[in-house]
Design brief:
heterodimer, A: about 350 residues, mainly beta, 4-stranded antiparallel sheet, 1 helix, about 0% helix
Chain lengths: ~350, ~850
Amino acid sequence: MNHRIFNWVGTILLLTVSVQFATAQYKVTDLGALEGGSAVPRALNSKGDVAGRSGHAHGSHTRGFLWTHGRMIGLGALPVGDYSSAAGVNDLGQVAGWSNTANSLHAFLWTTSSGLRDLGTLPGDSSSQAWAINNSGVVVGASTGASGTRAFLWTSAAGMQDLGSLPGDTESKAYAINQVGQVAGESLSASRSTAFLWSTNGGMVSLGVLPGATTSTAYAINNSGQVAGQSYGSAGMRAFVWTPSQGIQDLGTLPGGDYSTASGINGTGQVVGTSGSSLGTRAFIWDSAHGMQDLNGLISPNGGIVLAGAVAINDAGQIVAYGNRSHGSPQSDVVQLDHASHAGPVHVYLLTP
Amino acid sequence: MRSVVIVSLFGCLAFICLSGPAAAQSSSVGQWSAVQNLPYRPVHAHLLPTGKVLFYSYYFESEYPQIWDPVTGTTVPAAQAPYQIFCSGHAFLPNGDLLVTGGHMADNVGLPDAAVYNPFTDSWTMLPQMNAGRWYPTNTVLANGDVLVMGGNVNPVTDADPLPQVWQLATQNWRNLSSAQLALPLYPRMLLAPNGQVFDAGPDVTSRYLNTSGTGSWTTVATMNDSAGRDYGPVVMYDVGKILAAGGGDPPTNTAEIIDLTSSAPAWHYTGSMQYARRQANATVLPDGTVLITGGSSGSGFDNSSAPVYAAELWNPATGTFTTMASSTVYRGYHSTAVLLPDGRILSAGGNVGGPNAEIYSPPYLFNGARPTITSAPTGIAYGQSFFVGTPNATSITQVTLIRLASTTHTFNENQHFMHLSFSQASGGLNVTAPANGNIAPPGHYMLFVLINGVPSVAKILLVSSTAPATGTITGMVTNAAGAALAGATVSGGGVTATTSSTGNYTLANVPAGEVQITASRSGYNSASEFVSVSSGGTSTAPTIKLSSGTGTITGVVKNSGGTLLGGATVAYSGGSTLTNSSGAYTLNGVPASTVQLTASFSSYTDAHQTVTVPASGSVTANFVLTSTWTGTLQGSVTNSVTGAAISGAKIAVNNGAVTLTDSTGSYKMTNVAPGSYTLTASASGYGSATSTVSVGTNTTTNASFKLTPNSSAGTVTGKVTNISNGAAIYGATVKYSGASTTTNTSGIYTLSGVPAGTYTFTGSANGYLSRSFSASVSSGTTTTLNFPLATAGKIGGKVTTTTGTALSGVTVKISGGVISTTVYLTTDSSGQYLSNWIPVGSYTVTVSKTGYSSQSKSTTVSAGVTSTVNFTM
């Protein structure tokens, strides 16, 4: 018998086989994109619904979307608007985001029954952006006008409330809210930003910056009041996690990277985000037991998918990420490992444990 | 007889006499040069006030900007950028500095940094940071010289930066247009309109004005007709307030539309369509007011290099039609640029696929008769001012145009303005009227062209500003020591130069008011100076300047472009010559005090010329850099010093600023390297770097290979590749990951050392076996064991028929089993047959099912290289 009658390299990837990879911890679902274009996620609820934006790669026609029950729904834009983005989704399927109007930018609340609702601005302002919504329907974001930008908290009963800023700062933005109403974001002066945690009783408190850094921003908060975000200084951008007991902690980068940012945290303290690496920009998951791991090593390599960033993680451990199918680079174009994610459409991928 | 035509590809095309068929073609469709290699891709390209092109590439390469000289075709490194300026916005400030905003922290993640590049001192200065990171913002110069920065992505989490900011020259800080937040796509097409507001021309279809006063406000103006969005289609303002948007979208369109912002109700209207649909094309306004379209792809997708458009097209605003021009040879797609040069040619360069090279296009107007010349023009003009342009072609001039210097990337020139200037004939030239205000021509540097029936001069670069210096006129006479009139003497002062007439008289016009030193010089005479007081608008008579005859000295060195001093080179002028010594130095004594042209020459090098003015009883320095007619090649490989495995993606840095990476075989190659001595440093993640000094000769290939030692932050992966069926070792199997590849020894053992700590996918493959991939984490200083039990493979096929013998199609066939657990689903074809792909050997169960029939299962064994036949009757 001749064992060398054929030469086969890598073709097993094309078979529908049930070979189990010991380290493939997540099943990957490609959520596609509106208009066959490009899509980037921003939020994930506990049911696995995803909110984000989708449009032409690098270009026009960007609209907020909600992915639920296996399909991507375009949310449209506020009247005459030509750009919108969905930023938060709660377990009721209500979506918070922002949209261009004819000549400005306004926060919106979207529901299946009522569609897009313009949330207006703080008094005297001209524009606003909503970044998150909790299961009580409380929306947080930022309102901007001639006097600058202020974090807001919106309820259907009371409308928009100005959350103020840290002492000495003049501006602020709220990016996250948990189910007990704690809010995280950044407070700004002309020269720096500082991550904050806000609560009804405690007001706004600074979460500080990493050692040696000058700025910090909080992008996510879990129901224990633990916060994830990024801090920037001479060493570059670094993902951080902040806990009430241990304060701010540097999550480092993947091997070979000089950049990281965290934008999602769940109830068990698992953090997701994006990191540079020797292989290019990659999605990561971090927990205190395992440190930072490349999510690409935790999915089956059979799909040919490169996950460039992870945006959110829910308490079931589901992760929403963005990336692309690796189509390789021209031989002459060896300088960069990541051209597919720079120069072309990206898709949203839902990772389910 | 056909004359032989030799065109200097990168030299000046001022006068080219063509005849025969080739000439007839070039005069109607223009001509492309051969491809010139560059050190990097010009992803961002700018015409500097010095007349040279500053360009930079992508990723870390963007920290090494380059300066390309259109006259000599040579490239030299510019000062290193202060941060990664890939994906930045850019436009020129009124003083000629290039303002660069934002940049690349990671893909889709912007830097908040900003900097200015001074082209006169070749230096960078950091500015205060912007409000947030900006990746793909657009800079637009406003009427007072301040610069609007709009758009760009902060990061994937917060998306577009909606806050417009203005860089204020007076305060050297940012002004937030906080009442004008709006989300716009990457690199919005922003253009300063004649009403002083900034017009947003896409790529989304809603067109608006941004009023940048106070805290800003937007108003809606019009809607584009092409509702699909002109993504990566160029937009140009081809005349004052008149805008052309051509092509773009996915799939690309060949349509184009125009809007006239000077009309009472501006609206987009279709103009003629291009012959070719295009995306990723560039558009360039030419000196005659036509618009050149170059490059792009007609295929769908982001950057489709399988459907390149090589033919240029020329749009005529008078007729609204496109005419197809000559074809280039390289696909200029995503990350390519086009820049109008002062000599009227167009630099078309770069592209991810196109590569680090350029082609230069000469439009038909360079083949349609002699070009007019500009002999004098002021260095600066003020709005509304009448100024004098010296030209011997005054009576023939039909057009005078002004074009702002290009600053372009991603199919959009962020620093574009074009206008016709009114003019009248005057003695020895033209009286030209400067643009009325900064809305039409924001302050800064422009190219001034004079044209005869569409044939342009070489441009003069001048500064347009709100207040040109007050000027007056100086008249006077130059004589020899005996008082006899001297004709042909050069008189200069206040930045203006004139030549004495046969009566020894001269006139210096547009001289800055104040005390001015004027200097007269003439071949064979000592130069002499006088001071004259010039009043604004007045005419002053200077004291007669008497010149005595005399001689001076010229000294200098001759070296090559690699920096090597050349001994034995000849330096000559019309009155004599000398040779350089072994240190490359020369001295020419006794040269008449005059302006002389020097020529330096050396075997296998291109002659270099230089004009110097020799002072009487003094010395002048004239150094030469000669470019070899032959260049060398540097090549080699980078391998792991322990395993000998090739290292791909290793960085090779040369001490002249050049950088390249090794390919998948660990090899690199740098061509067109000037002869000389270089120090190369090879580095790769997980390895210690290595340095080597090599000498590059002319027309030779120099090898410099490196063996890098894995550093302690790396680990080792080892294991055995076996036949899963019998445990036998497989010799010669390949095990690879993204960083390296190796093969097994006769015992089936492989070792990958120097693997940087991290998680990788490792793939084992061997002839006759199915490949397998596993993910494994590698830690510093540790050895990870990863075995690859590989299976040989066979196939299963057969036929399904009914009990009556009819072939049964559409039957679902499930194949399950194998030494590596495998499940495959197949469907029978119209002849009832099915055949699997290669599957691992071993025992399988084959199950067939179809609605309306009873399912059946059979067992079979798959052997290596054999197709097992399993037929069913249902």
